[in-house]
Amino acid sequence: MAARGAHITPNVEVKPSLFEVLAADSLNVTFYPAIKRVVDFLATAKPTVFGGLVRYYDEFYLLFNSFVQGYYIRRYGGSLAEIFYGLTRTSLRSKTFTTNDRNWSFIVLVLVPYAIRKLEKLCDRWKEDYENGRHVSTNRQLLCRMLPYAKACYESVKLIHYVSYLANVTQTHAPSLRILGLGLTYLPEEEESWSFKDMLHGKVKVAAILSTGLLRCLELSAFFLQFIEWWQTEANIGDLSKLPIPDAPELDANAVKYADVCPICLQKQIIPTALSVSGYVYCYRCIVTHLQSEGRCPVTKYPATVNDLIGIYSGDDE
Ligand SMILES: [Zn+2]
């Protein structure tokens, strides 16, 4: 029985099951929202430090993804998610993984998703413009209308690929891999185990420590994210990023100095009017005259116009 099993095993192991390849695919698409959630959380806690990350999240993720996927493609011949599930990429014809395959894999794994995300955001903006009555060119309108159909088509092609992979008709489960002429196979067992003692004696390469560390972090964070998701649905507490309330910014010397007076005439404000770009409160006449000639906040020098003024109704005005 064991002998028979040993005879069968090598043939079975060449092609991973559909569940394994799908698990790798679904892990791959979790990274973007998972890291986004962490970034949102950090930005809510410390807006001054992490605010920019939210604004340029796509670019930040592109950088992160380029680094991580680039490393895994070069080192192991597959994406991080594929390696995580013990899979690697191989050419369907030559059974190798050439530099050309590496470059194309990088483009499809990193650059194409970035471009699609950007296009979707652009379409959302055009749609908004169109709904608000602004002019949007016919080509752009057509592109916005075609995009959902293109996505639906791609999903259908993917489904057909899954079925044919399951039925052993094709050697690859994803249209993107098929275009590149690549398939997934099991990662050969590599002797990569090392002890803490080896590490202290400098026998282990930094890259090996980093890559093992990254994989362990990934396992932990995957578990952690599932836990958070369960916790959120159980307690129904809404978005995690809304939990902490950031501290109010510290008052600077000017804010204390101009607490009750108009920073321009240094008297109690007549018709108190706040400038929204800086938060300082002036007399209506003082600030309007100043903005018309200078075009910026007298205290902070932030650019401003009369459209940035907000009337304040405190109740004790005459
Ligand atoms: Zn004044």
Automatic annotation (TrEMBL):
Location(s), subcellular: Peroxisome membrane
Family per similarity comment: Belongs to the pex2/pex10/pex12 family.
Keyword Ribosomal protein included in the entry's annotation: no
InterPro entries: PEX12, Pex_N, Znf_RING/FYVE/PHD
GO cellular component: peroxisomal importomer complex; peroxisomal membrane
GO biological process, one term: protein import into peroxisome matrix
Organism (species): Anopheles culicifacies
Membrane topology label: Multi-pass membrane protein
Pfam families attached to this UniProt entry: Pex2_Pex12
Protein name: Peroxisome assembly protein 12
Taxon lineage: Eukaryota, Metazoa, Ecdysozoa, Arthropoda, Hexapoda
